[in-house]
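One such shown below:
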Amino acid sequence: MADSTERGRRSARRSGGFAGRRVVVTGGSRGLGGEVVRLLLAEGARVAACARKAEHLDGLRRSLGAGDELFTRSLDVAEPELLERFVDSAAETFGGLDGVVACAGGARGRGITEATAEDWATTWALNAGHFARLTACATPHLRASGGGSIVVVSSISGWKPGPQAQYGASKAAQLHMVSSLARELGPYGIRVNAVSPGSMLIPGKRWDRMRLEDPVAYERFTAEFPGRELIRPEEVADVIAFLLSDQARGVTGVNLPVDRGQNAPTPQGY
C-alpha cells in the first residue's frame, strides 16, 4: 500500500476537494475498497463502509485512528434489505449522500459443466444485483443532495474472455447498467461510471501469493502486461476518486479500464 508520503503527493495532485463530501463504499475494509476509504478520508470526506467481517472493519478503523468521519457496518451486500438499511443509516448519520462506490463483489463456482445454478445466482447477486440495489436505494439520497456520483468497480473480465463465465457475465452486466443508468439518472444530476481494474497486486491475495510461491508462473503472467507490471490498488483508488470528484463533472456513462494495458485477464487466458 502507499505510505503517508505517497498519499500526500496523490492528494496534492488532485484539486477536486472532498471536504464535507459523504460517500458510501461497499466492500470497504481491505484491498481496493480499503484503499478507497483511506484516500477519501485523507481528503476530508466522511465515509460509510461495509464489509462481511466486522473484525476487518475494526482493523481498518484502528489503522486509521478514525472517529465519527467513518461509519461502518458488517453485512452481506447480496442481502438487499441489509444493504438498503446500511445506505439509509449512512445517509441519516451524515445528513445525506454525495457519492457511492460499489466495490464489493466476487465469484463462486468453476467451469460451465461444474458450476451450479446456485453458483451463477450467487455470483450475479454479488456483482450485478448488489450494484443495482445499491444504486436504487442511494438514488433518493443523492437526488436530495442535488446530485452526485456513482462508481462501480467492474473488471476487464467484463469484456476480455477468461474463466469463469459467470463472473465475466456479471461484470459485463455492470458495464451495460452503467450506460443505461447514466441516461436514466442524468436528469437528476447523478453521474454513473465504471472503473475496470486489471489483475491487482494486493498483499496476501492471489497474485501476490503467486509472486512469492511460484515466481516462474508469475513471471509468465506478467507477459500479459506491456510493462510487465501488475496494477496496484492505490492506482485504481486514484481513478475512483477522480470520478467521484468535481474534476469529472463532465464524465458519465463511461467504463474506464485501469489495467496497465493488460491482455488476458488470467494466466489461463483465452
Q: What stands out?
A: Residues 50 and 117 are 27 Å apart (CA to CA). The chain has nine helices and seven strands. The longest helix spans residues 117-144.
